Amino acid sequence: MDARIYQVAHSEELITPVLLYYKDIILENVQKAIAIAGDPGRLWPHVKTHKTRELIRLLIEQGVTRFKCATIAEAEVVASCGPTDIILAYPLVGPNVSRFLALQRDFPQVRFWSIGDDLDALNRLGEAAQAAGTQVHFLADVNVGQSRTGVAFDKVVAFYEAAAAIGGLEPDGFHCYDGHIHQADLGVRTQLAGEIMEKTAALRDQLVAKGYSCAHLVMGGTPTFPCYAKYPGVYLSPGTVFLNDYNYSTSYRDMDFTPAGIIMTRVISRPTPNTFTLDLGYKGIASDMDGVRGVIVGMEEIATPVAQSEEHWVFEMAPGHEAEIPPVGSELFVMPAHICPSTALYPFVPVVEKGEITERWDIAARNRKLTY
Questions:
Q1: Rounded to whole angstroms, how far apart are CA atoms 231 and 210?
Q2: Is 55:49 a contact under the CB 8 Å cutoff?
Q3: Hey, how many other C-beta atoms are within 10 angstroms of the C-beta on 120?
Q4: Which of 75, 222, 245, 280 has its CB 3.0 to 4.6 Å from that of 17, i.e. a possible disulfide?
Q5: At what angle do helices 186-209 and 156-164 cross, to 10 degrees?
């Protein structure tokens, strides 16, 4: 990739490492996602990647009004932006029950949704909702193959019927996240998503035939949301597409989304004739995965990471490219392998538009607790 697309004016004033968001690219990615969905109203994206009010508002301006969250803090940030619907896509246990109900109380214009797979936990949620004089909209969390959370397909109907009998709960659909589908081949992903869709639709039809409402099917994640787009009446739930990252851009080449969250870093040392060190340790970029944590844009094929600590990252030049080692002080741009946890390492991001820093977006939901 050409590093020139990430150049920014007055970069000498930036303290590195610094995460930058590129608004022009984000807007392009938003439009591509809407085009795939066919209608912005079908998108129900996750906010865990960016955690910012500004991007939520940008999406709302484009007609995307439903959002998915992993934490109460994320839900609070989204609620403050004026959406229509918020799913807290995480089972409610412990103090999160009362926090969720407090959010629902204080933002009555927003329809909040909980998910779950355990009837005991749902009974406690229902009791708390009744005590608070309210009802909770609910989506059954279906285990479509990842086996992280969710009810197995063969138990969904009985589970749904039992959940519908709990006072304080209003079940009206399924939450179906397929995080185990990460094959690079679009045809394989489409086939696997189709099998999930067939089973899910059959379960919905069974419940509707029995008189239950099951109107909301929230399907998939980033790799599969184009696969579910051909099915009418379902919501699509990507997350990373608006910022994208190295893993997604290389693993899913059929999805033409450009990375828009890039870390600027500087060379601080050239300790050997064929190595150089960046000021980008694992306190500045996600280190949650084995293998590549990020690549230097424009040097993907000639610079390989060999060691990383808290504040240092050492790269080695490929044989024959030693003369291309960047000088000490050079400004380089690193594309994170995993942008979601990388974002959470920064309290704010400068936002670049047409090569100039025009805004600063707070990563408002990086903390676990804000008001509630």
A1: 23
A2: no
A3: 8
A4: 280
A5: 50
Residue 372 forms part of a structural domain: no
Helix (H, G, I), strand (E, B) or coil at 268: strand
Tokens of 221: 């994640």
Cα–Cα distances in Å, from 246 out to 49, 157, 334?
Answer: 14, 39, 9
Per-residue pLDDT of the chain (372 residues; tens, 9 = 90+): 889 999 999 999 999 999 999 999 999 999 999 999 999 999 999 999 999 999 999 999 999 999 999 999 999 999 999 999 999 999 999 999 999 999 999 999 999 999 999 999 999 999 999 999 999 999 999 999 999 999 999 999 999 999 999 999 999 999 999 999 999 999 999 999 999 999 999 999 999 999 999 999 999 999 999 999 999 999 999 999 999 999 999 999 999 999 999 999 999 999 999 999 999 999 999 998 688 999 999 999 999 999 999 999 999 999 999 999 999 999 999 999 999 999 999 999 999 999 999 999 999 999 999 999
Torsion of CA 88, 91, 94, 96, to 10 degrees: 0
Q: Is residue 68 part of a domain?
A: yes
pTM for the structure as a whole: 0.96
Q: Residue 272: inside a domain, yes or no? A: no
What gap in Å lies between CA 60 and CA 83, rounded to an integer? 7
Calpha distance 340→346 (Å, rounded): 11
Give every CB contact of residue 15 below 8 A, 6+ residues apart in sequence.
none
81 Cβ contact partners less than 8 Å away, ≥ 6 residues apart: 53, 56, 57, 60
Report the domain count for the chain. 1
**How many CA atoms are closer than 13 Å to the CA of 4, on its beta-carbon side?**
1
- Which residue range(s) make up the domain with 165? 23-242
CATH of the domain at 44: 3.20.20.10
Side chain identity, residue 176:
C
DSSP class of residue 302 equals T
119 Cβ neighbours under 8 A, 6+ residues apart: 159, 162, 163, 166
